[in-house]
């Protein structure tokens, strides 16, 4: 194993530090959540599609025999059916069929990781130098950074000079010194002359050789950086999520109010604020907090000086929220309906018998009726449940006396509507069997409406509408075992 790769940017100093918000370090991922995420993101048909697209998009001549055999094995194991076509789902625009990038491929992933790990060293070198700069390892360098930040904060136009100066000092000058090296210390000379022809070949940046120590140093730093990102991500979410996701509506409403007021104030008066002074103060404070002595001083005096002020501010905020944030709005209410269906037994002249309570009127032109299906619902009135997430707002059902209104609203045809009495909406027999009777009746907007002592042959079904009020339940009162056989419809 080689010690290092020549002309390669690799962090050969101490490893990239691992961040931790608690003494226990970064939290370990939950295996159950990992399994569920893998099941959601790597379904068999999508994984096979990505493997096939990746294998087709790249020539396999550059891969080893083991990689090609593994790809072929995965293509045989994963089912080939396309679930989107089987279930008639909309196409996934993220699929490789609609983009020009290669799909998922294990050999391609392995090759790209090797190339990436060989070339990522420059990022870790930069990260290590920044860590040394902000932790005051060399105070003169940190003070120089503070001087540069001070000039930029006081004169923001110097930001245009910064990338040009960095290119001169960190790219051009080192590259020139490589071609014009200083003489060895054994040679006596009065001055270092930069004149004359180049004395050394130019330096070229090369990737770290595989299986070298530099390659494994990059893997080490990459591993630590992944841990850092996961730790920072979880820590930021732990701080930001509770006050912003409305789990505590009073606190989130307060945050929303403060953000809205601050936005309005800054929109009007932002040009009056001393932004240069604010940026200078923030720059000096952020760099000064990286000093180990100041960090230790803050940690030692946190309990005695900072904690009491935190508790005072928290208690004041809680009192203000309890006094000024009012969220006792009445819950949302709606009206639900159910239809009492009765069926005639013994032909067209038989007696009516109670059949079912259904969420649909089961009219002659309903899809269930045309398909020859039976109505769905519950046999008893007491079994009619409120919709999921709702609860009953009153004690009992009320008969809808406006039977003609809901018939016209649904454009129900081939029925007789009772405008008095029990408000039944009854099916009529087929038109070819009741043409003589239909001429005697008075045709309304949605069916036949008859009166007097006229005898009209009815069909086998009749229904009437019952209504009841419901109100939305809070999150704490919603049960996970709601009745799946719900027959109440929300209007």
Label this structure with key terms.
single chain, 491 residues, alpha+beta, 8-stranded antiparallel β-sheet, two-stranded antiparallel sheet, 16 helices, 10 strands, 45% helix
Task: Record the SSE blueprint.
Blueprint: H1 31-41, H2 44-57, H3 65-77, H4 83-86, H5 106-119, H6 121-134, H7 139-154, H8 161-179, H9 213-244, H10 249-269, H11 275-288, H12 292-300, H13 302-324, E1 333-344, E2 352-358, H14 367-370, E3 390-392, E4 398-399, H15 403-410, E5 415-417, E6 425-428, H16 435-440, E7 442-443, E8 448-449, E9 458-472, E10 489-490
Antiparallel strand pairs: 1-2, 1-9, 1-10, 3-9, 4-9, 5-6, 6-9, 7-8
Helix pairs in contact: 7-11
């Amino acid at each position: 194993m080689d010690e290092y790769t020549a002309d390669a940017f690799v962090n050969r100093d101490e490893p990239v530090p691992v961040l931790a918000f608690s003494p226990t370090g970064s939290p370990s991922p939950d295996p159950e959540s990992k399994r569920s995420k893998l099941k959601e993101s790597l379904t068999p048909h999508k994984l096979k599609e990505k493997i096939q697209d990746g294998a087709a998009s790249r020539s396999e001549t550059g891969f080893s025999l083991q990689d090609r055999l593994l790809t072929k094995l995965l293509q045989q194991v994963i089912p080939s059916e396309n679930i989107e076509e089987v279930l008639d789902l909309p196409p996934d625009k993220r699929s490789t069929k609609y983009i020009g990038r290669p799909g998922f491929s294990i050999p391609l992933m392995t090759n790209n990781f090797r190339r990436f790990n060989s070339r990522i060293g420059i990022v870790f070198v930069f990260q290590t130098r920044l860590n040394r700069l902000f932790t005051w390892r060399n105070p003169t360098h940190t003070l120089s950074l503070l001087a540069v930040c001070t000039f930029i904060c006081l004169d923001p136009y110097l930001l245009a000079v910064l990338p040009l100066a960095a290119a001169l000092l960190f790219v051009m000058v080192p590259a020139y010194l490589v071609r014009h090296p200083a003489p060895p210390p054994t040679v006596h000379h009065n001055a270092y002359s930069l004149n004359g022809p180049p004395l050394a070949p130019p330096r070229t940046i090369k990737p770290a050789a595989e299986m070298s120590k530099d390659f494994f140093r990059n893997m080490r730093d990459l591993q630590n950086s992944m841990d850092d990102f996961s730790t920072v991500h979880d820590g930021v979410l732990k701080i930001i999520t509770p006050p912003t996701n409305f789990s505590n509506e009073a606190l989130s409403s307060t945050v929303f109010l403060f953000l809205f007021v601050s936005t309005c104030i800054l929109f009007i008066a932002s040009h009056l604020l001393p932004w240069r002074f604010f940026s200078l103060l923030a720059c000096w404070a952020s760099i000064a907090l990286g000093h180990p002595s100041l960090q230790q001083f803050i940690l030692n005096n946190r309990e005695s000086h900072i904690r009491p002020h935190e508790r005072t501010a928290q208690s004041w905020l809680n009192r203000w929220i309890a006094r000024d944030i009012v969220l006792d709005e009445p819950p949302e209410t709606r009206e639900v309906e159910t239809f009492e269906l009765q069926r005639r037994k013994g032909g067209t002249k038989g007696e009516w018998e109670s059949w079912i309570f259904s969420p649909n009127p089961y009219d002659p032109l309903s899809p269930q009726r045309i398909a020859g299906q039976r109505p769905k619902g519950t046999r008893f009135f007491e079994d009619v449940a409120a919709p999921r997430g709702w609860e009953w707002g009153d004690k009992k059902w009320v008969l809808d006396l406006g039977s003609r209104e809901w018939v016209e609203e649904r454009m129900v045809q081939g029925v007789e509507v009772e405008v008095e009495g029990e408000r039944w909406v009854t099916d009529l027999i087929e038109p070819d069997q009741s043409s003589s009777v239909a001429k005697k009746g008075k045709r309304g907007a949605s069916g036949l409406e008859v009166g007097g002592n006229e005898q009209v042959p009815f069909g086998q079904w009749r229904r009437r509408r019952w209504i009841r009020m419901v109100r939305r339940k809070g999150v704490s009162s919603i049960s996970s075992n709601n009745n799946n056989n719900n027959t109440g419809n929300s209007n």
